[in-house]
Amino acid sequence: MPIAVDLDNVIAGTDSKIRHIILSLCGIPLLQSDIQSWEYADALIAKGVDVTSAKAIIKQTFERFHEVECTNVEPIDGAIPTILNLSEAGIEFVVVTGRPKTTRCEELTKEWLRKCSIPDSWLIMQERKAEFSSNWSILIDDAPHHANEVAAAGTRVLLFDYPWNRSTYHALIRRVSSWCEIKSCVLELRMTQ
After folding, report:
1. How many CB atoms lie within 10 A of CB 180?
2. pLDDT value of residue 180
3. For domain 3-13+73-192, is the CATH number 3.40.50.620?
4. pTM reported for the whole predicted model
5. What's CA 151's distance to the chain center, in Å?
6. Contact assessment for residue 60 and residue 40, using Cβ atoms and an 8 Å cutoff
7. Distance (Å, rounded) from C-alpha 138 to C-alpha 158?
8. Mean pLDDT in residue range 74-91
C-alpha cells in the first residue's frame, strides 16, 4: 500500500506564503507561532481584527494562494530528496491535498509537483482524507482533523509538528519534526508491517 503525503506544510512550505499574503492584504505580520489553531482567522482575531474582517481576509488569502501563488512556494527542507529516494527504493507514494479541485488550482499544483520532480500522476485532491485512508499504509500530514480522522479509521499517521496541531494525540499518531525523522519512521514502520 502506498504512503500518502499531504502537500501543504509537509512537502511545500505553505505557511510562510500564507502569512506573507495576509501581511500584503492587511499589514498584520504573523509569526508561525501565532498560528495556534487550524484557522488562520483566529490568529488575526487575536491581533485585534474583528471576526467578519478576519474571515474575509483569510478567504481572500486562500483564493489568491490557490489560484495564483501556490506555484511560488519553496519545498520543506529535505522533503523532495527524501520522497524521491524512498520512491527509488520501491516505496510507493501518493500526494494528497485538501486544496480545492478547481481547474486552475489543479493545474498549478501539478505544475509545482513537476517542477519538484514529483510525478503529477501521484496527485489526489480530496478534502476528506479518511475516506481513502484504508488504501494507505501511512499518512504524513499536518492537519489535526485529518490526522485524527485517519487514525480513528485505523491508519498510522506521521504528524508534522506545528503550533496548530500540538493538542492532537492518538495511539496511531506519531509526531515528527523533519524529513530525516520521517524517513527513519517510514523505514521502521515498513519493517514492522
Report:
1. 12
2. 95
3. no
4. 0.93
5. 16
6. no
7. 7
8. 95
The whole-angstrom separation of Cα 165 and Cα 117 is 29
Cα 14 to Cα 7, 34, 36, 76, 85: the distances in Å are: 9, 15, 16, 9, 23
Question: 66 with 100: CB under 8 angstroms?
Answer: yes
Contact of 95 with 123, CB cutoff 8 Å: yes
Q: Flag the least confident range among 19-23, 24-28, 144-148, 183-187.
A: 183-187
Assess contact for 180 and 78: CB atoms under 8 A: yes
H-type alpha helices, 116-178 = 144-152
pLDDT category of residue 127 using cuts at 50, 70 and 90: confident
